[in-house]
């Protein structure tokens, strides 16, 4: 099996480990994290082996693959930083897809993507790098999801929607067809988006309205 290391030991890592352990493609050699108090402990039998400073050594020892075990709530900056740092070392970032997800053969996937249980992604969708498609999310045909986006559990996205990079779509939100969501946007939980959303704003409500800018 291919050897893979996880970067970050949070709750998101637990879900990814659970998915990977149900397959026989990757051997998880360990998890790195910044919290020293976690060193030597385990997540579902997977050891937390030290800080991110261990990554170059692991790569040189033949561990060629990695995944980011840090999720993102509203702010993807830490996850994005770790993704880029791990790529720079030389690791190949794997896509982790739950076996119950339904994904059209005509979907284009970047790298470092997490697709959780029950997600549905229909024909013509393009998904960038370092994206999370969380549990039970639905993405209809011909959408474009740019880098570092988090689509939270239960989100429903109509056909032809474009979502800009670094954007967070909150749990249970709905975006109707053919709308554009800008970069670095937060769509609040349960919001219903019926209009285009500009860059760097937070929108909430039904219909969603701008709560704040920047």
Structural features, described:
With 214 residues, this protein is α/β, with parallel strands linked by helices. The protein contains three helices and 25 strands. It has an eight-stranded mixed beta sheet with strand order 7-10-13-16-19-22-24-25, with helices on one face. It has a six-stranded mixed beta sheet with strand order 3-4-2-1-5-6, with helices on both faces. Strand 3 and strand 4 form a beta hairpin. The N and C termini lie far apart (45 Å). The relative contact order is 0.10.
User: Level of helix content?
Assistant: 10-25%
Low-confidence stretches: none
Number of strands: 25
Q: Major sheet: size, sense and barrel closure? A: 8 strands, mixed
The helix/strand series, from N terminus to C terminus, equals: EHEEEHEHEEEEEEEEEEEEEEEEEEEE
Order of strands in the sheet with most strands = 7-10-13-16-19-22-24-25
Strand content: 25-35%
State the shape.
globular
Report the total helices. Answer: 3
Identify the quaternary structure here: single chain
Structural class: alpha/beta
Q: How far do the termini sit from each other?
A: 45 Å
| Averaged pLDDT | 96
Radius of gyration: 17 Å
Short description:
The chain has 214 residues and is α/β, with parallel strands linked by helices. 14% of the residues lie in helices and 32% in strands. It has three helices and 25 strands.
